[in-house]
Design goal:
Mean pLDDT: 76
Structural class: alpha+beta
Strand order of the largest sheet: 19-18-21-22-16-17-20
Number of helices: 3
Protein name: Copper amine oxidase N-terminal domain-containing protein
Helix content: 10-25%
Keywords: Signal
Pfam family, one: Cu_amine_oxidN1
Largest sheet: 7 strands, mixed
Radius of gyration: 36 Å
Shape: extended
Order of helices and strands: HEEEEHEEEEEEEHEEEEEEEEEEE
Length: 277
């Protein structure tokens, strides 16, 4: 009886060990299957850095680098203009960049596709934008508004800015004269002509409805802008040359306006006063 009892005990221990081993195998397999695989490491985005050089010297951009947006190269205007010797101011209220050097005065309103240089309208292919609290402009603005030679090196992704030079009759290169004292070309026809019917120009300030209105007539086919303080606005001209500009907003202190027209390279300017109601 003792031998039989010992045999039963040994058999029971072996059976228990076998059952325990079988029970543990699927749990281990399940734990291995449930363990999450390590997440793949995403590759870092590669960005092409756009550089800007003036006379082969790189311009530093402390907080916002030039960018390429929708195939257009946009550059922060302040570091570049200051590197070229311009004074740059920003009017937060009107969102206008004001650039001065000598007698040159350039005004650029964010989101508008035009700029104003010494009373002349300059069209931009894309409007100025605010990126990272900095105003960026198309490279074309540097060439047309600031009058510098601008080229693009696609291999090095570099905007190359250089002083404009002209060839004289002897083939030598010379820098342009001081833009504050432009040379007068006696053979060049005068571009300042009469496009506005000045007797038709009238400005009204309607305080009841809080808007300004400028009406008049210009030579048909002309492009017209009106300047109110630091703001420049495009004016729609009808086929017969008549126009009516109306603008609501806070223009405290503005008592005058300036109209500028351009057609076939000819220009005309009219200054007017708003008539109080």
């Amino acid at each position: 009886m003792n031998l039989f009892g010992n045999g039963v005990n040994v058999l029971l221990k072996k059976v228990t060990s076998l059952l325990l081993a079988i029970a543990l195998v699927p749990m281990a397999a399940f734990s291995a299957a449930a363990a999450p695989a390590p997440a793949p490491v995403a590759p870092k985005a590669v960005q092409n850095t756009v550089k800007v050089e003036y006379n082969k010297k790189q311009i530093a951009f402390p907080d916002q680098a030039p960018i390429i947006s929708q195939g257009r190269t946009l550059v922060p205007i302040r570091p570049i203009a200051e590197s070229l010797g311009f004074e740059v101011k920003w009017n937060e209220k009107t969102r206008t960049v004001i650039i001065n050097k000598g007698k040159d005065n350039i005004r650029l309103v964010v989101t508008q596709k035009i700029a104003n240089k010494n009373g002349q309208t300059i069209k931009l292919d894309v409007p100025a934008q605010i990126v990272n609290q900095r105003t960026v402009v198309p490279v074309r603005f540097i060439a047309e508004a600031l009058s510098y030679k601008v080229e693009w090196d696609p291999k090095t992704q570099t905007v190359l800015i250089a002083d404009n030079v002209n060839s004289n009759p002897n083939g030598q290169q010379e820098k342009p004269k001081d833009p504050a004292k432009p040379a007068k070309d006696e053979n060049k026809p005068d571009t300042q002509v009469t496009l506005f019917d000045k007797a038709s120009i009238e400005g009204k300030k309607v305080s009841v409805f809080a808007y300004y209105q400028v009406t008049g007539k210009v030579e048909a086919g002309s492009e017209v802008v009106v300047i109110l303080g630091d703001n420049t606005y495009e004016v729609t001209v009808n086929k017969d040359g008549t126009f009516k500009f109306q603008r609501e907003g806070d223009f405290d202190g503005i008592r005058s306006f300036t109209l500028k027209a351009e057609k076939d390279g000819k220009q005309d300017t009219v200054d007017g006063e708003f008539i109080a109601p």
